[in-house]
Amino acid sequence: MFELGLRNDVYRRPLATALDRLGLREGWVCADIGAGGGDVTVALAELVGRDGRVYAVDADPAARDATAEAAALAGTAQVLTVTQAAEDLLLPEQLDLAFCRFLLLHVVDPGRVLRRMAGAVRPGGWVVAQEAITSAGRVGGAALSMPDARHPDIGALLPALVRDAGLDVVDAWAEAPAGVGPGPVTAYLASLTGVDPGEDPVVLPPLVTVVARRPTARPGPAA
Ligand SMILES: C[S@@+](CC[C@H](N)C(=O)[O-])C[C@H]1O[C@@H](n2cnc3c(N)ncnc32)[C@H](O)[C@@H]1O
Question: Buried b vs exposed e over 104-143: b needs ≥16 C-beta within 10 Å?
Answer without folding.
Answer: bbbbeebeebbbbbbebbeeebbbbbbbbbbebbbbeeee
